[in-house]
Amino acid sequence: MKKRILIVNRGEIAIRVAKAIRELGHIAVGVWTDNEPEASHLAFCHEWVHLSGKTNTETYLNIPKIIETIKENKIDAVHPGYGFLSENAGFVRELKKINCLFIGPHAEAIHSMGDKAESKKIAKDAGVPIVPGSVGEIPRVAEAKKVAAEIGFPVLLKAVAGGGGKGMRVCNSEQELETNFETVKREALSSFGNDGLLVEKYITDPHHIEVQILADKKGNVFHFFERECSVQRRHQKVVEEAPSPFIGDDHEVREKICSTAVALAKAVKYDSAGTVEFIMDSDKSFYFLEMNTRIQVEHPITEEVTGTDLLSNMIKVALEEDLDFKNQEEITLRGHSIECRICAEDPVTMLPAPGKVTNFHWDAFPNIRLDHCLYPGIEITPDFDPMVGKLVATGRNRDVAMRKMRTALENVHIYGLKTNIPLHKEIFRDEVFQKGIYSTKYLEEVRPQDRVQTELTGLDLQVSILSVGFEGDLQ
Question: Is the pTM of this model over 0.70?
Fold first, then answer.
């Protein structure tokens, strides 16, 4: 039977979810707000409903209003995308009360994996290696100093309820720990409503490796291999690859980290798509970092190298339908895929640069995918994340994928505002990145942003292109 599925999100992920819903023969219901009355994802939905309000608090985060909308429109299921309410256990419990399916994991898994202290304890009990440091919350700076003395500096102060790179601070000495402790507590309280902190050993030259999993409601957990997400700024990802060039042909490490992710998912009786994130040292030893109980921004590269539609299978899990595969052996790696997050931000400072897109076009090439929400006239505002698209290039191997990405970056044209495309171009020209030997300190130490050339503004570039075309017609 066709299900009416409400997409409580916006932008490119709402478009991606709508496509998956339509492919499976269900009814995609999108939402529009007073802030985005002509949102681009609505064109991909069968129906639209209105969430009144102009701020996220009034709309995408307003649980009572969303529940009322579900009742009024006879919604059968909700897909949260990522961000907003995608990892809100309270929202899942409210949906259960009105017999509406949540396309995601059960509330207990979201709650336990969303708490850094609790998830670390669960990981430890499941035999998953964890970063040395406090297992539980550290309430006072004196206790933080004691833990730091035991594990040695540098240490990382990290919010218990953190995410997205917020509520984190590296401390290289006892004095820095004392100085930063209350500051990070205030940041954590402001960002997450919880000022609890952990103290962990800071791995000085780490790789950020994550494993995509999908679990059904029968106790089966499947992995889709790993992604490398070590190109980051402010603990937020910029470029992702699958598989990891750092792990390379070390199949023993690959099997070990993937089976570890599966073990953690089984420990919490997980039942949807999710990602287990690890920090990997230079000797390829790895430690549990966190679990994201939702679909990830970077899921397309995993889809490309495994040939699996993660979104449609995520929906199938929720509806308790047969998946597109029967066992782990059917899920294999093929080739290499790279994703560049396209953001409305300054390519040198990497700070958000909101504005209006005056024109946009891109040239499609074989094995190039662009998941985006762009159209001429769209306003990129500070209200939302500055990411506007994800450019994905896939090839037989990493060299081919990089070649395709370099071509793709030259053929995506966004006018009217700054984007980080010039930064991506420099990254793909860089020798360190080309060798695949970068760590999470890549942007901090190699600094390809310093080589970004000043380009014409979007407006000047449009005039230039139009002038060339006009002169050609005269000839």
Answer: yes
